[in-house]
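Record pair follows.
FIRST:
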Amino acid sequence: MPGPGPHLMYTMASGLALTTLTSGRFSPHHTLIYTINAFFGPDIGSFSEWLGSILGSSLQLLGSSLADYIHDPFYYILILGLPLCVLYTWVSKILLQRKLLDSVSGLPLSRRQCFLLVSAGSLSHFFLDHLFEENGHSSVYTWILSTGWWKNRAPVNPDAVFVVGFLCICLIGGFIYLNRSLYVEPYMLILM
C-alpha cells in the first residue's frame, strides 16, 4: 500500500491541477485541507493503533477499535466530518489572519467547503489505496490498508518515522512557502 509520500504528492498535484483549471477558485487553502485529509485522515486510526502499541496495551486496544471504524471511506466522513470541518474553518481563518496563505476572495473556507474537502480527501485516499490492493480478495485487506498487520507489538522503526515525518513536513512547508510568496502562476510551480 502506498505510504504518506504518494498520498501527499497525488493530492497536491491534483490540487495544483484544480487551481490551474479553475483559474484560482480552488485555492491553496482548498489544496492544503484536501491533502491533509487524503494523507492523514483515514489513517488516524492506524496511527493511534501504532502509538498505542508503543504506550501500552490498553491504548493499543483503543487505537485498534478506532482504526476499525475510521479507516473506511464513508465512516471517516460520518464520524469525523463535522468536527474536522469546524476545525479546518477555524484554521483557515487563522492562516488568513497571519497571512500564511492567501485566498482569492479574502474569506476563510466555509464549513460546507471544508466538509466537502474532508469527503474528497477520504475518497482520494481510498482510491490510491485500491490501486495497490489485490482486487479486494485478500483476507488481510483491512489490516494491510490500515498498516496494522502486526499481532502483538508494532514494529517500531523510529528512524523511518522521523525521515518520513520530516519529508512530509518539508513538502507541506514548501507548499505554504510557495503559496505565500509572490504570486506565481500555478503551472510555473512545476517548472521550479
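SECOND:
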Amino acid sequence: MTVPMAILAFLDSGPTHGFVLKRRYDELLGHGRELKYGQVYATLARLERDGLAGGVGIEHGDGADRKVYAITPAGAGELDAWLSSPHVPTGRPSELFTKVVLALVAGRAADDVLDTQRRAYLARMRELTAARRDGDVVDRLAADYEIAHLEADLRWIELAGTRLETLAEQVRGSTASPTVPASTSTEDDR
C-alpha cells in the first residue's frame, strides 16, 4: 500500500504528472527500489478508478503531452486515515525465523543459519554507517531506521542461539510421523 499512499502524498502537495511522481518517489523512497513508469501509471489509474485522484488537465511540453493528476477529497481522507493508523507487525517473524525452524526440522545446523545471517547483518550495518556520512537527511534517517531494525534482528539472533537446543527438542517432538505400513493398499483399491 506504500506506493499508492506515496503518490497521494505527492499529489497532496499539488497537481502533477506521472514523470514528476516517479522522480519524487525515487529520490525520497526508492533508493535501490525505484519505481517503473508502468507502476506509476497503473497506480494512478487505480487511484483514479477508486476516486482518490483524478486527471485535471494536460501539460504540453517538448515531448508527449502529460496528463496532470490531483488528489481528490476522498484521496486526502484516505491518506489521512493511512497516516494516522499505526503500523503493528503481526504474524510470525521474517524468513530468518522460518529458516531456523526448518533447519532444525531437516536436521541441519540452525546455528550455522544464525551465524551466516549475523555476518550479513553486520556487513550491511557497516555499509549503512559509511553511507550515512555522505547522505542527505532523508538518506541518514532511512539508514538509521534500517540500522535499528538490524540491531533488533541481531538481538533476536543472540536470543535464538541461546534457545536452539530447547527449540530443537520441541521441533523433533512435533515432527514425529506415524509409521507408514509397507503396503497401504486396501481391498477397495484393488
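COMMENT: Strands lie at 16-17, 53-59, 66-71.
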